[in-house]
Design goal:
The chain contains 27 helices and 24 strands. By secondary structure, it is an alpha/beta fold.
Length: 715
């Protein structure tokens, strides 16, 4: 009876459980609003010093669960236009108040909005000098350069005016600097040096490292302050009073900063308004994605971190893959903070989904592959002046006296003359920026030392290879002539692992033999005491004198087994002692041959240098070779001269150039080229100039002009 009575109860309980599951399934919000969401379309600016934060943002959005398309490069004006009409979703590079005018335009202001602060009030502009000059000459203000005696200390061309490294001609800051020179009465003692900013500043950093004075305009974030630290290496200069261009006078009250690190004045009027770096996004996009909105409200990247990344990029880690790796490392280093941001972002999405059970359907809007490039014309225009982008990479591209030169530049001049085109040359900081300008058809041709790879071929077209290269070895010119004296060889031998391997193996075999003879003789032979330590010592002594035949007979085994062991040991001892002798002899022989480096195999066990972030690092590490890394090739060359290292492995043409120029008579290149790579000119896909460039290049090779140029630069 009880069994039948319980059946209705069980049935009721089952129905309640099913109902509860249905209720929970319907009412519980989804943990991810990114499901079935169209890919997020993100943009990056034309200045590559802002690409790092874009990659950080992309990775965070992916961790939030979204698919994010590869960033597309846009000018500020193009970004606002495309985002307002829904072709793009966001970027992380709006500088306020510089971009306020865009937010006031009728076709834009209701369709985009600024959200969060990548950097609040930290984007600065101003004038800087090296700390040593500031202290020695008592300089605190840009107005101090009215003194001709101070100005002449910064005069590089002998015209009596201090050289202020300023902005490129087409940058808006160039006009502000000229305005300042005028209103502060500096026109007679200071001149703005204009050209490609990055190579100019690279030269300035080199001058600073040589102890020479430098005066320059700078902004943050920028790679400069990842190299020269404010307050230690350089200082900010104040201006006597605020004064901006007519259209910026409403910002003059924003040029003074309190507690600015690296400024001698408090507060410090730097002459330019401070800027906030903010994310700007499409308003409809933000309304549909509360988790993204929350993440953007929370996201902050310290200015010092951006500057440090920029410095790495300029130092050679300028591939797209490098920038992505920098972003990944930043997220890893800041994981606790990042995890909190992501949690709060997901919580915001859940909260909105609870309050809005019926979500709006967001129409997917795909970006056409050619968006933003509709005005580009791949057909060659008659009389068109080509835009040619380059990157400093000596000796292929040099930058001296505000002009580009080098093997690649001279080769391009010959090609341009051959095909009959005019061109305008400009420089960039990184290989990623150089290739991106070509891909976007911002540049018609790229010329530097551009390695031709399958990955790069997917985004641009290459000319025929104009230089085949790879890695090579540089050694001291008299390395093979050095013959160490006896004392040097003797002391060096004790640094060799081979010597210690031989000694260690010999001692180990003596100990094993000593234990065997002691165990067989200890109970019946007074020559081998019963106590362990004393007995082993006597047995060890017997093993040593027996194998060397020195003093044999002072101790002898008496047991038959002991004598049998001794007989075997005497025979085997010849081989053991020969091994020890060979180890010592090999060590001294290697010391005798010190300096004989002729190929890759000779580098093992040597002190080998290369340049950080170069292709040589990867190659040598794959060979499991211990290497010493230097930040610049100049530091590696100095290390070779001072005998800190025995060889340098680096790009063959760089080593050849050094051996025939600055290192002539002091260093020589040895061995064949390995890990081969070819350089080519890059042009946009389907460029009408590619075939013309190839024909011109072949003509220069056929008539011998190319070989004459190669001999000039590389010998």
């Amino acid at each position: 009876m009880i069994k039948f009575a319980l059946q209705p109860f069980r049935l009721c309980l089952l129905c309640l459980s099913v109902a509860l599951i249905i209720i929970l399934t319907v009412s519980t919000p989804s943990l991810s609003v990114s499901a079935n969401s169209p890919p997020i379309r993100i943009a990056r600016p034309t200045w590559d010093t802002g690409w790092f934060q874009v990659e950080v943002l992309k990775l965070l959005l992916e961790e939030l669960g979204y698919e994010v398309k590869e960033p597309v490069t846009r000018t500020t004006a193009d970004f606002y236009r495309d985002t307002a009409r829904g072709d793009l979703d966001l970027w992380a590079n709006s500088w306020f108040p510089n971009v306020r005018d865009y937010h006031q335009q009728p076709e834009i202001k209701e369709k985009v909005e600024a959200i969060g602060f990548i950097e609040k009030g930290g984007a600065l502009q101003g004038y800087m000098i090296d700390t040593l000059s500031a202290d020695f000459l008592g300089i605190k203000s840009i107005a101090d350069f009215k003194d001709p005696n101070i100005a002449k200390e910064f005069d590089g061309d002998g015209n009596g005016k201090a050289e202020l490294i300023g902005c490129n001609l087409d940058w808006s800051c160039a006009a502000v600097i000229e305005h300042h020179l005028d209103v502060y009465g500096l026109k007679d003692t200071v001149e703005q040096v204009q050209g490609d900013y990055s190579p100019l500043m690279s030269d300035a950093v080199a001058k600073y490292q040589q102890g020479k004075p430098i005066l320059f305009y700078n902004w943050t974030p920028n790679w400069i302050l990842g190299t020269l630290q404010p307050g230690k290496d350089v200082i900010w200069l104040k201006v006597p009073f605020s004064s901006l261009l007519e259209e910026q006078t409403n910002l003059e009250d924003q040029t003074t900063i309190a507690k600015l690190s690296g400024c001698a004045s408090e507060p410090c009027n730097i002459g330019f308004p401070t800027n906030d770096i903010r994310v700007v996004a499409n308003t409809d996009f933000l309304q549909a994605k509360p988790d993204v909105r929350k993440l953007l409200e929370l996201l902050e990247i310290p200015l010092a971190d951006i500057a440090s990344q920029n410095a790495l990029m300029v130092a050679g880690e300028g591939e797209n893959a490098d920038i992505i790796r920098h972003a990944q490392k930043w997220i890893q280093d800041n994981r606790p903070q990042v995890s909190l941001w992501l949690k709060l972002a997901k919580d915001a999405a859940i909260a909105q989904e609870k309050s809005l059970p019926q979500q709006k359907n967001v129409k997917s809007q795909e970006v056409e592959e050619a968006a933003g490039n509709s005005s580009s014309n791949t057909k060659a225009a008659e009389g068109k002046t080509l835009k040619v982008v380059t990157q400093r990479f000596e000796p292929f591209v040099t930058y001296e006296q505000r002009e580009y030169g080098g093997f690649s530049i001279e080769l391009w001049e010959m090609i341009a003359n051959e095909i009959g085109v005019d061109y305008q040359l400009y420089g960039v900081n990184s290989i990623a920026k150089l290739l991106d300008d070509v891909k976007r058809q911002e540049a018609d041709v790229a010329i530097s030392a551009i390695g031709m790879t399958s990955e790069r071929e997917t985004g641009v077209d290459f000319s025929l290879p104009y230089y085949s290269t790879g890695l090579q070895i540089l050694v001291s010119a008299n390395a093979s002539e050095k013959t160490p004296n006896l004392l040097t060889k003797f002391l060096s031998a004790f640094k060799s692992p081979t010597l210690y391997y031989g000694i260690g193996g010999f001692i180990l075999i003596l100990l094993v033999t000593a234990h065997i003879i002691w165990l067989t003789e200890r109970h019946h032979n007074s020559d081998f005491p019963h106590s362990y330590f004393q007995g082993i010592w006597e047995a060890f002594w017997w093993s040593a004198v027996t194998v060397t035949t020195v003093g044999y007979g002072d101790k002898t085994p008496k047991r038959p087994l002991g004598r049998f062991v001794a007989l075997i040991w005497m025979c085997a001892g010849y081989f053991v002692f020969a091994f020890f002798t060979a180890s010592v002899t090999t060590t001294f022989t290697l010391q005798e041959l010190q300096g004989d480096i002729n190929n890759l195999e000779d580098l093992f066990g040597r002190r080998v240098a290369t340049v950080t972030s170069s292709s040589a690092v990867t190659f040598l590490e794959n060979q499991r070779m211990a290497i010493i890394k230097y930040d610049t090739k100049e530091e590696a060359f100095l290390a070779l001269q001072s005998e800190e290292v025995e060889a340098i492995v680096y790009d063959a043409p760089i080593l050849e150039y050094y051996a025939n120029q600055n290192g002539k008579g002091q260093a020589q290149v040895v061995g064949p080229v390995f890990d081969n790579l070819s350089y080519g000119l890059a042009v946009p896909i389907n460029s009408p100039y590619r075939k013309k460039i190839n024909v011109a290049l072949l003509k220069l090779i056929e008539n011998g002009t190319y070989e004459q140029l190669r001999q000039k630069w590389f010998g």
